[in-house]
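Why predict the complex rather than its parts? Because the way molecules touch one another can change local conformation, and only a joint prediction can capture that. The input here totals 868 residues.
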Amino acid sequence: MRFAATLGCAACLFALAAAAAESPAEADLRKARAQIEAAQDGPARATGLVALAQAHTRRARESGDATQYERSLEALAEARRQDPAHAGLAKVEAWVRLGRHEFAAAEALARAHCEAQPQDADAWGLLGDALMEQGRSDAAADAYQRMMDLRPGPGAYQRAAYWRERAGDLDGAQALLRRTLAATAARDVEDRAWILVHVAALEERAGDAARAEATLREALAQFADYHYALAALAVLELRDGRAEQSLATSRRALAAAPHPERRLVAADALRALGREDEARAEEDTFLREALANQARADNENLFLVDFFLDRRPDVPRALAIAEREASRRRDPATRERLERARAAAEAN
Amino acid sequence: METRRVLSCVLCASLASAQFAQAASHREAPLTAIDRTADITDFYAFVSPDRPDTLTSIVCTDPLLEPANGPNYFPFDSDIEYAIRIDNDHDAREDVTFTFRFSTEQNLPGVPVGFAGAGGGVPAPPLSPAPIAPGTPLIPPAITALEGNGSQGIGLRQTYKVSVKQGGSKAKSLKRVGGGDLIALPSNVGPRTMPDYASLFQQAIFELPDGIKVFAGTVDDSFFIDLGAAFDSLNFRVIPGPGSTGIPLVLSDAQDATKDQNFLADDVSGYNVNCIAVQVPFQNVLAKGGAATSSNALRQIGLWGTTSRKSLSVRVPTRATADAGDFVQVQRMANPLFNELLIGTDMKDFWSRSRPKDDAQFQNFALDPLIVRLGQAAFAAAGVPFSIPAPPRLDLAPLVFYTSGKQGPFADLLRVDLSVPPTPAASASRLGGCGGDPAGFPNGRRTGDDVTDCFLRAGFGILIPQFNTFPFNRLGDGVNVNDNPIPDTFPFMAAANSGRNSRHVDPGEPGCAGATCPVN
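Output of the joint prediction:
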């Protein structure tokens, strides 16, 4: 039987409902502020502040607003003043440092917490995250396995999925992400959307663009205007020859979270539509914004490398940026950019 | 020009691909560590009022389910092993274990909702454009059955298997009497899709061999509490209404005697939860040869619920290494609020993963409860100083030791004396043992027991005669009863709140219960 046609627009309604509601991170922020307000100075207040830091970190992912990390660190600093021995300080700061792409600092904090509290499954996960981003995948697998053996569940499953993806086991990664999704509550809409974006990436890598697009739309039904989903969807639409649609989706992604690299997809869509001047203007804006962010931990440097290799060739500049970035992080994407830049330099 | 555009697009496609991958691999510290589907909200065990020679035990998971939250609502997690464990020889180790595993089928692929149905079904209208021909069924008939005719609209269908393991014997699978699947009851989507939800609820009760009954599904959450006040550092409210004492958290005599009305909002009102209930004849749970009589030193049994997941291999499995390891316990629960209110924050996760037989390491949390000291401090700060019992709090022993026969090791178990008959509903106290009702908490826990008030009173010492005085014996959060009436037959839980027509009672609104509730 076919019921799809009539019910298809239900997803639109869910998206509208999701847009109208308070996001999970916003709810966490509200609760944490109330907790702080009610608490007296000391450990209870510190607990509220640690919760506030966590909520800001969650909001950073929801919104793409990196200033949320600053607020997290401010909350943690105040929490440390209230209770220097608070058990959550190092772990939550490791979380924030990961968000800011300060991987060495995140590793040190997570490692210290794991040594102090080896039964804390989450801390092993954070340690693994920091190790992965620094290219130490074998050590990361050990940390992730420790987390898994202590407490299997969504946190451990999705990390195992990431590790498997990096190891080339796309089927295993997908299966693990689906398990993660099944274990994530219906109301954790942003978490669910985030998982779906990663499932879509694996589907796209496996060559099933149609399925990937359907998965991204499912993510958007869960969390309206989710910037990660929109950005990925714009890419798929462009690749499928739907340049006009891709341009609109890129604009929505930019409006939801102004990540400069999203201008490149918009530029490509404009170019595909024959609007070369606008495409170049979009690229110019990307260049200006990305260069301004160069020195920040959370930056667009990998896109700048690509930009100076492919769009506006300047190989020495691409190599310099790639080398600088690689001195800080050793994840596969960074290493791949460095190799490309070196190859281009040698070819020159 | 055309060539240039084509070349540009080849280039942009490769860059776009890089960006897709980048978007996907850009992993901020993940936040999906909260395992809500494995989170046990409540655990109940009591002598069944509808069959007094049986024990009913219920484990509930996945808290605060918003009834309207489609499209798939709240399936049980097929990766989880749900279990009810029973110690019948007072050593805090399981002697009888019921386990439950769920499987999920998608019967309406392509349909974006898990459940759909209306009337006798809706076909495509005469003007339906191609490719869907007029008359093609579009919406299935309303869901009136869990299987067979009337169940076509159940797109997301869950079945489950039950097994029982006794002592060292091998686990035995328990099949449905008469054959067929055990089917989990989906949430109440609303009256158009499920016009007679009460009937579906009854259809989800299945008979197993040896007089065992089982139920699994989404139901109204039976727990009731002023949750916001409790977790706002015990920021309880003055309870309005007849003879209000004017003191936060302290009920008047009239309020205390009320068991069919709330004076403050039940923060869990209107929410659903996933529960598994099993009703088992005593002979299946008592130590071999024992009877549910006062002469049996092992008439008291201890129960707890657990959720477990398999540990998986992070590395890509090889022929020499398995993809999945053993089940690892991720959550447990016995006494209400034990983990939430007694165990320290930094130990909660570890406690959840440990076993009752090893609970001695947590002894200080229960025998010198910090929450009671915090309560004392909060009242003192408000100008109401009072004494609390000195540790060790042996008056709280019924929560952590057996009180008949061998007391056994310190362990968080929900202990039920099977020789105590159920109290008729009319004479039952909402406060259970704290209100003099021997068949209620902490002798097991019934779905209607006001464990919050009993926990508060016991915490402040009313089990010690000198502390069984005002205001300690009138402590309460002003939420005395569940928002939906609890039935007096198995599975002793109210049906799920409707996704379309339910609401929550919020702070500031008048309290309510049963027929007076602005629900449905």
